[in-house]
Design brief:
Length: 193
Amino acid sequence: MRAVSLHMYMTLDGRAEFPEYPGSGDPPDGAPDPVSTEMWLQHLDALDTVLLGRHAYERWAEFWPRAKRTPGEHPFYHEFSRFLDRAEKVVFSETLREASWENSRIVRGDPGREIHRLKRARGRGIAVGGGPRFAQALVARGLVDEYYLTVFPVVLGRGSPMFGPMEGQQTLELLSAKSYRWGELVLHYRTAR
């Protein structure tokens, strides 16, 4: 069965935001980006489907398509945009009228039904990208199998919460924890069954 992995960035106080701190932003030209590599790039060969809510889809479709990449950008952008162009993008929305980014489709109604169908279908892993409200809905329903979380070394005190209300506790098993130069942590958890 295919696994659903949640890939999200958050502050130490649980806000799904990208704060400024020493080390934030793109690395200097030619420098590696170990956090993005750990969060996304090293997993791309194991993924072929991305789940998005409407707001995240609209932002990603505006930013990520290959046609909008420029030669001077960090290599992460090129590699991730090539992956997104070829991946199936499943957008959960009741209001989005069309999904024109190649390999995109809209699903209306119960996300659980479609995610269970996708998990049983042939293919590689399924990633949940961008959108804390959408992520909260999937977490609350127990639809996430693995978590890749980058925790920024910032207590922000405002912004969208990463996790929302749930009916019951979900216990996770820590698979790896790595720290980086500026205090970022990349945590990999699996849902304990």
